[in-house]
Design a protein that fits this description.
Number of helices: 18
Number of strands: 23
Helix content: 25-40%
Structural class: alpha/beta
Distance between the termini: 59 Å
Length: 609
């Protein structure tokens, strides 16, 4: 299959050269004042790589860019070695042979066996146990795979004196799915109610469902939260998305309110990704953790529709969507019935199976019952025959073959230390992140080291491929004492911590660190920023946006041998050094006072005395 161009027709290498820069919560004004001033922007043109450059990168994947960073000779050697490791493993994991690494497929089988083999060859030990209690590389994760076929979503009702009917086509206008693990699910003439942001947040004096009985009804909901909509720093978390803004919360809250269904109105800016991400992610096979009640407590239908479709429906209902959005961002908003109904049928092919987290460890020499944990998700979206164009394989090279390969690279360096760490070091490649952080959620419920004895963790997801950056973006900046340790380590590379550029996109809730953070474990999720040592800020920002637009969750996310992975390797070195510092100390870092996870962690403080 010819993959020389993306589905947009643009040269693939020019798209995939873009690294993903992610961060979310942002820092307070007080913290921002203590930050170093950003380096000046130096726009630079990016020439097309020719075949000889790609060939050279294949055999020697590092460049001279890291020479700009003040690294010691030993660190430069480690960066070069880890960059080489990254190229080697990303090339394999993101190949067509691995079919996009979807859980419960041939791609999973190839991926988890490859990871186990690599960890074993490095001399690590299996970190999990099998059903008989014997050491195993695999933690079995019971999942349900559902292939969902959706009819069009039909909106009916009275528009003035006229009978109104609008048919929304799957993938073009809407996507509909269900978490219920049954053969079929549907909405039949379910009343539509616009509930604004669909949030119930007593601490913010906010209740979009106030006075409503949602039984037999379907909530129509805006994505993100009022803080993003108003940019009011005193409302929710200002421009930074809170969990109330995430699609997963919207569906969960609709279920708590007794609704039959929920439809989220997509907006690219508020969601943080274009419609193609929604239609691609939710139109293929859906994966969930196996539930004893088959998720009977979830709503019957979870759906998205485009903003164009929503505008047409609101107009037919005698409402202006933009005006209703403006009203919804004000405290005291009152939900409005649209006086229309929705109908859609879902036919589900349900299959139960086992997916796997891959768990490896370096046992601690003095305190093996305490551990530092590294996480990265190995899964991606697999093959989706509904994808546009000829290429239907979602290879997931940046997202997240980079982070998965990074676990191997860090493990190699950690194992090569002259002495074993005093505390254990655990490496967990988790499954089904793309389906809602399922593998990490399962691990958090079934940890191989008790969470109260898990010192801290570092997560790697969608690492940069643009070379070394001066700034280190912390996703969820301002959360924990780990940041000060990271800052000290970053200074040794001539780098500084930075608040994120797109806090409204909610990345803090979109990767696997969140599953452990919710249980109280201090977690770090950081990445290279956009202050390029070699090309300046504007160049890196443009490349990052190009990746999000053209390749994120699309078949165009493919490996390029000409990537400069020294920046990712420098990030891994930060993670390695921080992990070793924690593993060879008696420190127990915590969340900062006032953080939402601090109280959970403090409940287990006696076990760490």
């Amino acid at each position: 299959m010819d993959k020389s161009t993306s589905r947009t027709g643009l040269p693939l290498k020019s798209l995939i050269a873009a690294g993903m820069t992610v961060a979310v919560l942002g820092c307070s004004q007080e913290n921002a004042q203590n930050k170093p001033a950003p380096e000046g922007s130096q726009p630079a043109a990016q020439a097309e790589r020719d075949a000889s450059a790609a060939e050279a990168a294949e055999s020697s994947p590092t460049t001279s860019a890291a020479k700009s960073a003040p690294l010691s000779a030993d660190d430069k050697a480690k960066v070069a070695e880890m960059a080489k490791d990254l190229h080697t493993h990303i090339k394999v994991l993101a190949s067509d042979e691995y079919e996009g690494r979807a859980p419960a497929t041939k791609g999973e089988e190839l991926t988890v066996n490859y990871l186990a083999k690599e960890f074993e060859e490095l001399g690590l030990e299996p970190g999990a146990t099998d059903e008989d209690g014997n050491p195993s590389w695999f933690q079995q994760v019971p999942v349900v795979e559902m292939q969902i076929e959706s009819t069009p979503l039909t909106i009916r009702g009275k528009a003035g004196d006229q009978t109104y009917e609008k048919v929304l086509e799957p993938r073009a206008d809407m996507v509909a799915f269900t978490q219920r693990q049954t053969d079929e699910s549907s909405l039949q003439d379910s009343e539509l109610v616009f509930v604004g942001y669909g949030i119930v947040a007593p601490e913010n004096d906010w209740n979009d469902y106030a006075g409503l009985d949602m039984k037999g009804k379907t909530a129509v909901i805006l994505v993100n939260d009022p803080g993003y909509a108003t940019k009011d720093k005193d409302l929710f978390n200002g421009n930074a998305m809170t969990y109330y803004g995430r699609w997963s919360y919207k569906f969960e809250e609709a279920a708590r309110q007794g609704a039959d269904g929920a439809i989220i109105i997509h907006e690219t800016g508020a969601a943080g990704y274009p419609w193609e991400v929604v239609s691609g992610s939710w139109s293929g096979t859906q994966i969930g953790l196996e539930a004893e009640d088959k998720n009977a407590d979830r709503i019957a239908v979870e759906a998205w529709m485009t903003d164009d479709a929503a505008s047409a429906v609101f107009e037919a209902a005698g409402l202006n969507l933009q005006q209703e959005m403006d009203a919804a961002k004000e405290r005291g908003f009152k939900a409005k019935p649209l006086n229309f109904t929705a109908s859609v049928d879902l036919k589900n092919s349900v299959r139960t199976s086992k997916s796997r987290n891959v768990v490896a460890k370096i046992p601690g020499s003095k305190h093996p019952d305490e551990a530092v944990i590294y996480t990265a998700h190995w899964d991606h979206l697999g093959v989706n025959d509904h994808a546009e164009g000829e290429d239907h394989i979602f290879n997931g090279a940046v997202d997240n073959a980079t982070g998965t390969a990074g676990l191997i690279a860090i493990a190699r360096q950690a194992k090569a230390q002259p002495q074993a760490p005093e505390r254990s070091m655990i490496f967990v490649a988790v499954t089904a992140e793309e389906s809602g952080l399922l593998g990490s959620k399962y691990y958090a419920e079934n940890p191989v080291v008790p969470l109260e004895k898990t010192v801290a963790g570092i997560n790697f997801d969608a690492m940069g491929v643009l070379g070394p950056m001066r700034d280190v973006i912390v996703v969820g900046y301002g959360n924990s004492e780990l940041e000060k340790m990271l800052e000290n380590t970053a200074k040794q590379q001539g780098r500084y911590l930075s608040p994120e550029e797109h806090p409204e996109r909610g990345y803090f809730y979109r990767s696997d660190h969140f599953s452990l953070a919710k249980k109280g474990v201090p977690m770090l999720y950081f990445d290279s920023g956009t202050d390029s040592f070699e090309h300046g800020r504007q160049w890196a920002q443009e490349k990052g946006e190009a990746y999000t637009t053209h390749a994120y969750h699309k078949p165009a996310d493919e490996y390029d041998p000409a990537w400069n992975l020294e920046g990712a390797a420098m990030d891994l070195l930060l993670g390695l050094n921080l992990g070793l510092e924690l593993a060879n100390s008696r420190d127990w870092p915590n969340w900062y006072e006032g953080n939402e996870f601090r109280a959970i962690r403090d409940q287990s403080a006696d076990s760490r005395q």
